[in-house]
Amino acid sequence: MSHTAEIPLAQGSESPLELKPLKAADPQAVYHRRAQRLLSLAKDSPLADYFELCRRLVSIQARLAQEADFGKLLAWGKDEATPLSLLGSEADSYWQGLLQQLLSDLLPQVDESIARVVRLLMQQSPEQLSSWGRSLRQGHVSEVPARFSLFIWAAMGVYWSHWAPMVIKRMDQRKVAQQSMCPVCGCHPVASVIVDQPRAGLRYLHCSLCESEWHYIRAHCTSCGQDKEMTIWSLDDAKAQVRIESCDECHGYTKMMFVENSPSMDVAADDLATLMLDSELNAKGFGATTLNPLLLAHETT
Ligand SMILES: [Zn+2]
Ligand SMILES: [Zn+2]
């Protein structure tokens, strides 16, 4: 476990064509783009009210990412496979502080049914919140009341996404192997994005917690890794901006967002706007291998 101040920056390659295994996010920019995208996608959505709740929440995340006090980076596992998965109870007090700020900002902006949930969450003990936060980060979503998960994840996301870029600068990217879970914080991806820089058609998985992206070879299952029996699905034509890659081996699937021609796309917002694709895949017996932070409130407990 190490503190960043004592660790020199990792040496990077100078070649512009070199593929980066890991890409750090600018959390403020991500949250701003997400809020904009939620606003524009809400117009055509049967879930317009839910999009608006998410937009308000993400707008508060953008403000907190800019203004909040994040203290100093706590001990993290420099030599561990997922260095930011090891932040312990000290980090809890920081993200719980962000949660209280986020909920106080949101409270006057929501209707009474959601306000009741927000007030109830504000009254939970730090121990209870720590336990729920840990369960969510470990992927045990059903251990947390669904009505609270959206907000807890949003607060943790602001904290983890703030520190991820600084930790990435100090990681040796040559040691980052292709993997299903985020190499920085250990959480699930939301979906994958297909980019054309530095080479055409590269795929990166986008983290649901710290917003980092990591390279993952296309036509390889992002859950079990096999590369023999993959199928591509889309709602309309083969040039659709959102497509699904499903695996005939483990029956998992991951969405692919072709962001090059549509820079306003956002993984979480566009995933939410294409739930009909999920319904079709679910009906065929496939299950998502991803986690959308904006969909946690829709999970059943
Ligand atoms: Zn992450
Ligand atoms: Zn698979």
Task: Describe what is shown at a glance.
With 301 residues, the protein is α+β, with helices and mostly antiparallel strands.
Explained architecture:
This protein is an alpha+beta fold and 301 residues long. The chain has eight helices and eight strands. Strands 1, 2, 3, 4, 5, 6, 7 and 8 form an eight-stranded mixed beta sheet that branches. Strand 3 and strand 4 (213-215) form a beta hairpin. Helix 1 runs antiparallel to helix 2. The radius of gyration is 19 Å and the shape is globular. It binds zinc ion (ZN) (2 copies).
SSE order and pairing:
Blueprint lengths: L21 E2 L3 H16 L5 H20 L21 H18 L5 H11 L3 H12 L8 H24 L19 E7 L6 E6 L5 E3 L14 E4 L8 E6 L4 E7 L8 H6 L2 H9 L3 E2 L13
Parallel strand pairs: 2-7, 7-8
Antiparallel strand pairs: 1-4, 2-3, 3-4, 5-6, 6-7
Bound molecules: zinc ion (ZN) (2 copies).
One zinc ion (ZN) binds next to loops.
InterPro entries: FdhE-like_sf (IPR024064), FdhE_C (IPR056796), FdhE_central (IPR056797), FdhE_N (IPR056774), Formate_DH_accessory (IPR006452)
GO biological process, one term: protein maturation
Pfam family, one: FdhE_central
